[in-house]
Amino acid sequence: MANTASAKKATRKIVFRTTINKSRFSRVKTHWRKLEDALEAGDVVVARAAFIAAESEQMRAVAKGIVHRNAGARKVSRMAQRVNALCLDVVSISESKAAQRPRDITPDDRAMPITKDRLEFLESPEKIKALIAQGNEHLSEEEIEIVFEELLEAAAEQLELERKEALAE
């Protein structure tokens, strides 16, 4: 039993901190439980969202000193492997279905940014418009057409500048 005022205050602080830490750790466990449920259900979208929330909560607990840094990282790593394994299973199924239908845009087209050099490689304006629309779903057809025209003008200006620089040398 504490006798001094400072010891009594320290025990009060310990009780208060213990309740807060229990609450925080309970939140972490709740997030991991939601992730476990999503993984068991096989729902990729929910699993990814649950993983992001659980990872954030776990790292917050690490920052607050509730969970050891290495233990938190180990837990996140193991769950990330499980989520990635689930995602790969779903992607392999969807890729086999996608291979059965014709595609206008190859995966390489989606992975690389649109540059002047790439404009020369693309055969049709439809592919360029599809690439513009891919990252800008909020644009209407008219706005995509305007961006396409501006892109062609900028590419033409760049080619003209390079041609002038080559002649000047």
Class computed from helices, strands and strand pairing: mainly alpha
**Sheet with most strands:** none
Q: What is the string of helix and strand elements?
A: HHHHHHH
Question: What distance lies between the first and last C-alpha atoms, to the nearest angstrom?
Answer: 89 Å
Which spans of ≥5 residues are poorly predicted at pLDDT below 50?
92-118
* Residues in helices, as a percent range: over 70%
- Global geometry: elongated
Please tell me the overall pLDDT: 76
Cα Rg: 27 Å
How much β-strand is present in the residues?
A: under 5%
Number of helices: 7
- Tell me how many strands there are: 0
Keywords:
169 residues; mainly alpha; 7 helices; elongated
Offer a quick outline of the entry:
The protein has 169 residues and is an all-alpha fold. The chain has helices at 5-41, 44-64, 69-98, 107-111, 116-121, 125-135, 141-168.
What does this entry look like structurally?
This protein is elongated. Helix 6 (125-135) packs across helix 7 (141-168). 82% of the residues lie in helices and 0% in strands. By secondary structure, it is mainly α.
Question: Helices and strands in order, then pairings?
Answer:
Layout: H1 5-41, H2 44-64, H3 69-98, H4 107-111, H5 116-121, H6 125-135, H7 141-168
